[in-house]
Specification:
2 copies of one chain form a homodimer. Chain A is mainly α. Chain A is built from 9 helices and no strands. Chain A has 2 domains: 46 residues, Homeodomain-like (Arc Repressor Mutant, subunit A); 124 residues, Tetracycline Repressor, domain 2 (Orthogonal Bundle). Chain A starts with 5 loop residues before the first helix and ends with a helix. The relative contact order of chain A is 0.11. The structure holds a DNA duplex (30 and 30 nucleotides).
Chain lengths: 186, 186
Amino acid sequence: MAEKNIRERIKEVAVEHFNSNGYHGTTIRNIAKDVNCSLPMIYYYYNNKKELFDEIIKKEYFDLLKRQAALLRTNSIIDFYTKFVYDLNFLSNYEKKVYRLGIKVYLSFDGDEELMEIMDEWEKTILPRHYQILKPYLKNTDNDIGIVRTLVHLLETLIESIVVKNRFLPEEEIQEEISIVLRGCE
Amino acid sequence: MAEKNIRERIKEVAVEHFNSNGYHGTTIRNIAKDVNCSLPMIYYYYNNKKELFDEIIKKEYFDLLKRQAALLRTNSIIDFYTKFVYDLNFLSNYEKKVYRLGIKVYLSFDGDEELMEIMDEWEKTILPRHYQILKPYLKNTDNDIGIVRTLVHLLETLIESIVVKNRFLPEEEIQEEISIVLRGCE
DNA sequence: ATATACTCTTAACGAACGTTAGATATGGGG
DNA sequence: CCCCATATCTAACGTTCGTTAAGAGTATAT
């Protein structure tokens, strides 16, 4: 047993490498080098390269999404979404990279078809979920769904800015943009 | 000389492969196989793999962006942006793949640092350009820049939906979302 | 007809890859 | 003290990769 659980160390380093170089650009040798262990050590904990990648997406990424979705609601809907996005700024580097990797698979820039299908299933839940959250604040006009869709689209770009492009988004900017879309609500 | 300019055929097939498998997942051998030519043929027209990738991004992708930016303006600003996005639905498959590949590099999911820098330069021009376009329609309130930023963010997601996720976005949906952000303008 | 320039091929190079076989170290239970 | 399971290593396997050397086929110009 090394200083830290080696299995976890491997996963952490793997996230880094998959993130920077993609699935095919990442080599088991380089991961081993950064973990400071021998090459077959990785095969001791993971059956193969794909299994390592899969665990990151299926466990780490989706755990992160669920943790995020369980955020408590504040009394203002605009504040809620602002906080939702703003807090992403303060994810750990590891979490940000897992998130980034997930988005990469979500956009089918990496991973395989099996992972893509899992992502598609998740995507279908997004709109209804936010519709439920926003429902009490909507004014029952005929473009309610349009507002939800627009907000979700905006959120997607904001998340990408923070997580994928690694920018820091100030709270006021986030609030301003969300307010523009939700203008009239609440 | 083959049926078509072989150099162009190679580029077309390369776009396909880089798109599906990323830079590292793409092999010169597989490109050659799909082009129906021998492997060194590719080295006859391109010095190496990276040069082939670079030409696609530096020439094809940016040519596409410039062609797109040169769109004529209609009299309504909402119609202008709606058309801007809606027309993406009808890009050729080749153009869509080039676009997708460009976005992949833009999000630094592929490519190298040199290409990333070129992208960063381009990105800096985006906000000012749209501010110029929107200027006559803005009401000189203190969140003018916020509206421009929100619109650009929304456009980004819409473009991604069509080009990256390969969805078809109906004109009404696009118009609805843009209207929500530009609500009050014009 | 012969030389020259362009187009394209077969065959191979060395390097790097994912993966595995087999041995060694380590540490607790009988 | 020895046994056995777990943890880790060195060394190698076969495959595939990017790239190139060397030359064959073909058309044009002299």
